[in-house]
Structure formats: C-alpha cells, structure tokens
Specification:
The chain is α+β, with helices and mostly antiparallel strands. It is built from five helices and 25 strands. The termini are far apart.
C-alpha cells in the first residue's frame, strides 16, 4: 500500500470513529424521585434524622424540610450532572450531594457560618416512620438541667406530647427555645431532633426511674452535653423581663451603628424622635431571631403608620462587614423584613456585644428586645424569645406585647 492509500485509510478510520462518537448515547443525569425522603446526618455516635419531601412547583425543584408542624421550603436547588446542591434559605448553609440512584443521595451538609464545617449525610426515598411497639409515656412537663455536675447547670423546661410511638415537643430555656422537635419512642427511650439550616439538634432520652429521665443533647458533630429531668407540672424559669436591664447611671438606651450601606444610624436621629421604638438585638445565624423577625415584620406593618419604629442590631459571625451585610440582605429578602437592620458587629461574642452596649448589664441572649416609649424611656427589656414551637408561651407573648405596643402608641 502506498503512502497515499495509507493516508486515505487513516482518514476513513478517523471519520468512522467520529461518527460512532457522535451517535453514541449521552449519559442521562439521574433525577431524585418525587415524594417523601429521609436524610440521615452522621454526627458520629448517632445519626440525626431529617424528614424532607421533594416536589416540583412550576419550573422549580423544591425540597421541604419538616420539623413537627414547621415546613421550611427550599427552592434554591441546582443540579449539575449527578451533583445536587440544596441551599438553605436565610442561613448560610447547603447540602452538596451526589445522586447515586434515583432514591439515594450521598454527600455533606456544609454550614459556612462555622467556617470549614461539614457533616456527612445519606438521603433515601421513603417516609419517616416510628417503629410500633411498647412505649413508655413521656407526656407532660419536665424540669430539666443541662450540663455536667462539675459545671454550672443550665435550667430548662421540657414539654412533650406523645401519641403512641410518635412524639413532638420542645425545650424552653432562659435564652429561648429549641424550636420544633419531633421524634420516636421505643420502649423506655426517646429521640427528638430538628434541623432548620443553622442548627442540627438531636436529643436522646431514657427513662431513668419513676418520673425521671436522663439524656444527651447533641448539636451537630461539635457539641454534646448530658442532661437530667424530673416530671414537674409546675416547672418554670425566671421572668425574661427581669434578666437584662439598664446599668446604674444610665437612664436611656442609645447606639450608633452602620447600616448596610455603611451610613451611621443613631437612636437620636430624627426618624426615631417622638416614636415608639422596638430595638431588636439579633443575628442572621440565629433561628430564634428568625422566628422573632417574622413576628416583628407583622407588627411593623400593623403599627408603623401609628408611630412604631423597629430597628435591628445585628451581631454577625462573619470575617468582614461586607459578608455581614450580605447575610442581612439575604435574610430581609427571604423574610420580606420591612424595617432596617444595622451591623453592630461582625462578632456574636456576648462579651463583645456588652461592650458595644455598655448601658445594659449584659447581653445574655440573642435575641433581646428593648421597648422604648415616645419620650425615649425604656419601658421593658425582654430576654430571649419563645417562638411558635412553644404553643401557649408564644401566644401569651404576642398578646401581652401587642397590648404594650398599643398602650405606648396611644400615649
């Protein structure tokens, strides 16, 4: 065969290979099944279960996270090949996973607000089901103490509602509540969990004796502590309106912090003069603050035209002011928050917060709310927030605070 014929044969071979490549079927990406799913976060000693569901709304993939009565819809979902990305609303975290089958996804949950923090997960298509069988009764109200004997114990109140092997409830503390918890009872053991995009909480409880129990509280993979509890229908905590107050020598609350555009805003500015002002000490990373912000947005719409101003002071945990401002803009967009939020600090350290607000005896909790009348006098300081997951506590707070706002507005 001469050189010319050899070149011709080579070109025919190359052309045939190209044609075969063009006609070969492309790999079709796997699509996760529609319907109920269960995510298991691997926090080490235990798996933390998360109930979710996958639906299509319009042209969007929506993953809904279920915590008892709460449903968090997530529509910031993208897929590249077999890689799936589910970004949580408001909070700076996301699931990054690989679709290994239409009913199985594996990857990591990344919580960027904690830096390089990630937890492995596996998601499987199927419903959340509690095993049936004998179940000890955990119903009722419990006086709880978190912590080890060698450390200062933190008081709390546990409220559980059990139906056969299924249970819901929450823990109330003096700085807020653990929001919507759900779980299962098997024999004399109970597990409760919740996931909101910022926190992944798991509580394991065991009946230790007649109307007493012991347990462990896990926060993601980075923290755990033991706790004990005894049934007590009269269990209470200190009055949240007595925990934070003005230091001696201060008769007013004041501040001067930058808005998201870096312009300084002060309580002495003209827009606040002669107004009832509700100051919210908060952070975009804080689920209790999220619950509170939803309520305060309703109050702003209801009472602003009557003379109410609300302003948030955000203590973020970010490396830069720009990142803190970006987080607050995201929160305001997702919640439709109509009132301004200032960047008080890029640190949420409570000691640093107390230095920023020296008129307060301390910043004990995010959130904390200061109610100021039209004369500029502080009428009430409320530490923490009991959200809608606390039932009657939330209803009572709403009713009492609306009555106070209406009284101050009418003055």
């Amino acid at each position: 065969m001469n050189i010319k014929n050899l070149q011709s044969h080579l070109w025919l071979l190359i052309l045939s290979l190209l044609l075969v490549g063009c006609n070969s079927p492309k790999k079709v990406p796997l699509i996760p099944k529609i319907g109920p799913w269960l995510i298991h976060l691997d926090i080490g000693e235990h798996d933390l279960p998360i109930e979710v569901s996958h639906t299509i709304k319009g042209e969007k993939n929506v993953w809904a996270f279920h915590n008892a009565k709460e449903i968090i819809e997530v529509d910031e979902v993208s897929q590249v090949g077999d890689s799936l990305f589910i970004r949580m609303p408001v909070f700076d975290s996301e699931f990054r996973g690989k679709i290994v089958a239409d009913s199985v996804i594996r990857g990591h949950w990344h919580n960027y607000s904690r830096g390089d923090y990630k937890i492995p997960f596996e998601a499987t298509h199927g419903e959340w089901i509690c095993e049936s069988g004998d179940a000890v009764d955990f119903n009722g109200r419990w006086a709880v103490k978190f912590g080890k004997d060698s450390m200062e114990l933190t008081p709390a109140v546990g409220i559980f509602s059990q139906d056969n092997n299924e249970v819901t409830g929450t823990f109330l503390t003096e700085t807020g509540d653990y929001r919507y918890l759900q779980g299962c009872v098997v024999g004399g053991e109970m597990t409760l969990s919740t996931f909101d995009g910022a926190h992944a909480f798991l509580f394991t409880l065991k009946m230790a004796g007649d109307k007493s129990l012991s347990g462990t509280f896990f926060s993601g993979k980075h923290w755990n502590e033991p706790f004990t509890a005894v049934m007590n229908d009269s269990a209470t905590l200190r009055d949240p309106e007595t925990l934070t107050y003005l230091n001696p020598g201060y008769d007013k609350f004041s501040f001067s912090f930058p808005a998201l555009d870096s312009q300084l805003v002060s309580l002495e500015d003209a827009q606040f003069q002669g107004k009832v002002v509700l100051v919210q000490i908060m952070g975009s990373w804080c689920p209790n603050c999220l619950d509170e912000s939803k309520l305060y947005a309703q109050w702003y719409d209801k009472y602003h035209d009557q003379g109410l101003e609300i302003i948030g002071l955000a203590f973020e945990r970010t490396p830069t002011f720009a990142k803190a401002a970006s987080n607050i803009r995201r929160l305001q967009k997702r919640l439709g928050t109509p009132y301004p939020i200032l960047i008080a600090s890029t640190s949420n350290n409570k000691q640093e917060a107390a230095k920023k607000l020296p008129m307060l005896n301390h910043v004990m909790s995010y959130p904390t709310s200061i109610f100021i009348d039209r004369s500029g006098d502080v009428q009430k300081i409320h530490t923490g927030f009991y959200g809608p997951g606390t039932g009657a506590y939330y209803t009572e707070f709403v009713e009492e605070t609306e009555a106070l706002l209406e009284e101050l507005i009418a003055e």
